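Lecture 7 notes: from sequence to structure.
We start with the chain below.
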Amino acid sequence: MILKDILSPFSGWRKVFNEPVALKDPVNDRPGAPRYRGFHKNDISACIGCGTCETICENAAIDLVPVEGIKTKDGDSGLRPRVDYGRCCWCALCVDVCTTGSLSLSNAYIWVSEDSDDYRFTPGVDEKPWQNEPLGWKKPEGDYEFYPLNRVAPPHLHPEERHDSFVEMVKGFSKEQAMSEADRCVECGICTATCPAHMGIPQYIKAIRNDDLEEGLRVLYDTNPLPEICGRICTHKCETVCSIGHRGEPLSIRWLKRYIADQNPSEKYKEILNTGNIEPNGKNVAVVGAGPAGLSAAHYLALMGYSVTIFEALPEAGGMMRYGIPEYRLPYDQLDKDINYILSLGVAIRYNTRVGTDISLEQLHSQYDAVFAGTGLHQGRSTRIEGTNHPHVYQSIELLRKITLGEEIHVAEKIVVIGGGNVAMDITRSLARLQRQKYGKVQIITTSLETEEKMPADREEVVEAREEGATVNPGWAPQKIEIVDGALKGLHVVQCMSLFDSTGKFNPQCNMDVANFFEADMVVESIGQGMDISYLEGNVKDQLTFDPRGRIVVNAQFQSSVPWLFVGGDIIQGPDVIHGIANGHTAAKGIDQYLTSI
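Predicted structure tokens for the same chain:
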């Protein structure tokens, strides 16, 4: 040991005569550093109550609680985080993981109170002096992310590879792509609440991460017996509320669903889903229509032991999924994969049998214990403007059905499509392909009352239509179809300024001084779909209750005022596939309750 080591402990004595430092007001004299991690702040208008902060907190310091004045709605649980500062360690993981960026920490770290309950409060709701202070900890932008903000896109055929072909254009995820996209999920469940079928979305995405696709299939079939179909053409409302989408791009939930269904071979479904031994219960149910609602009802009724027969007017099952959606979006072999599994459960289909013509509803009632009708929207609607009675003015639904049936249709060199929804895009893109095959070029214009920002069609549909050569020119109101010497010449339109009046009633207003003319040899109307319920004849129809829109009134289980008749799908709610599936599932449970109670 050297002398320095011996003397160094005494060196501090030189400060014994220094003036002591005392803070008379430690609260104001010692503010936290600008990015100090103090008490929480929360912008409750931006917060959606997704619960990722609660999930990540290892100290269980955060609970999601209801807040007066904040209602549960699509994309918002209605809950907000309450923090218990007896547990909080100010690690800021809750801030860093926040999907909306609403949560932050102030730089205030001193709070004096004799009431222990004061240290358990809901930031942004319970008034605190630091709530609007700008200083404190926020997640550093761009420094790091707990989850990638950009989604993984499945491979698409290039426009030049698909513009004259009906081959499926989206190829689906590889294993690496699916697992990478699944890793973005924070399992908040906001999507499940919004999905009409309330699918276990976080659960099946977790199954992908765990590379357990059989478990994923079991989760899918718990609420959705058409995963191949929904994995391709679902309207994916779940993605519109995905919490990751607030700061980045929402998860590709639809394509992840498809990935699970694609990777499971249909011959293993019964083994995976444990449906090889269904005990018959001795009762039978008739289903009218083999669309999504009818197929869904048949599936769940079959699992309950009912003998189910579907009566379908067309040559094959699928309803509007087969006869209204082009094969480049929904290949028929994948449609059949879902349908054939339902048939393997013992469900029978009588094709080319139209209820109301080939067999009456009363006859079904006499032969079956209950009836479910899910007949969809198979009729087109007309603008009824001058010239719509011309033979070269068509309905999109009629043309799409003929394309599926393989029938030859009229394809003019110049075509105008009226409509701004997905069906309008489907017929636009189908006719563009047929034009290219026939004429070697595309000359098709699609117009709608809505401006592009308000068009109901999926954005991707509009983009892809343009990529394939179509012209999408929205914001015009059709006035008349010009006919000269019996020949169709085109469509006259004027600028549409608004669609609804101050009361919310559909009442388009136009600027008649701004006009346009779309030259065409053929016009296709695609402004909506109507229902054909002519099979509701006589005594049955007289007992039913209809709402002001002409739809059949049903209860929460889709039971009509005629106890043995249940009705669902697009003619009740929709139109979209996932609502039909959810309706069929609920109706199946309702039919089971009805038949076990009588």
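Points to note: The two ends are 99 Å apart (CA to CA). The domain at 165-268 is CATH 1.10.1060.10 (Fumarate Reductase Iron-sulfur Protein; Chain B, domain 2).
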